[in-house]
Amino acid sequence: MPLEENGAGAGPLCVHRILEGFPVLVNIIDLTDNLDKYLGQRLTPARIALSYLYWLPDSMFMVLPAAVLFATVFAIGALTRHSEITAAKASGISFYRFIAPIFAGAVIATVLGLILGELAPITNKKRLEILQGNTTNVGNDRYNFAYAADGGRVYKVGALHLLDSSTEGMVIERKGKGPEYPSYVISANGAKYRPGKGWLIKAGALHIIPDTLHNLTVVFDSLIDNHFTEAPKQLTLAQKAPADMGFRELGRFIASMERSGADVNELRVERMLKIAIPITCVVILLFGAPLATSTQRGGAAYGVGLSLATTVIFLMLIQLTKGIGGKGMIPADLAAWLPSIIFGIVGLFLFARVRT
Description:
Elements: H1 2-40, H2 45-81, H3 84-90, H4 95-98, H5 100-131, E1 141-148, E2 153-161, E3 166-174, E4 183-194, E5 198-211, E6 214-223, H6 232-235, H7 247-259, H8 265-292, H9 299-326, H10 332-353
Antiparallel strand pairs: 1-2, 2-3, 3-4, 4-5, 5-6
């Protein structure tokens, strides 16, 4: 039937088209705002274009729920205005069956979001290298900071002195996976950087932790960690933002910061949002589909207004709950999921009232 074919193809196709269009729009807006800065850095057009190519996974990740919402409202709204849903119901096709392809598109968007959430930190790092976005701290010393390195390594440094390329009070942690790849912690009084040879760590202890029951400790006068390759100036670079860390990497960084007594509630919210935002694609469908059946009252303009208003409210809720969760007023994991829970409850209520 032509009617069923149109309904079946509308959902995934709309999600696909909007998912392509939104990141392009975001990139154009960002380029307009920052073009003078990029030209001032003497970046070639090819390098600027490559930087935005690397930014696509991150920009796509952020617009996924909005893309699903717009696709839902426009697809179902258009079918409603042309009375195709009414005709489908008269032919014995329920509303639930009619929107099944759109639901499938939302599930695909969820899976894609989970993949993009892990891919974005990798591509963002390459983008920052191109744009030279990292900035060093002013001065020759830096005190009491943590640095998340690659491979799940975290450095906690009491003091870093650039003039003599040395540190004081250093702790290096590497999260393992078991006896074959154990965790270890290196604590030392200090370290000295030797150009071309790396860091020489002085006077400390190496704790090898294969599991929760064992801890092998080796005291040393000096030690060379072949994986500690960052130069002193690199340690002064701005720490990676939570958005630039993968789910596991951010988890390791949170665990390390917790052991040092830092407040990690805000980081926990950021970490859980890497899962909550993709899952919201399905939740937003339950919310948007019933509302889209009323778009015949105001036409396409009503659909645009409805989608924009819902997106703004959802983003405001995320920022609100992130602030509440970051202050410890509610559990951090709950704060990340609260906007989705609210929209999900309202969506289920609206969904149950739709005439099938």
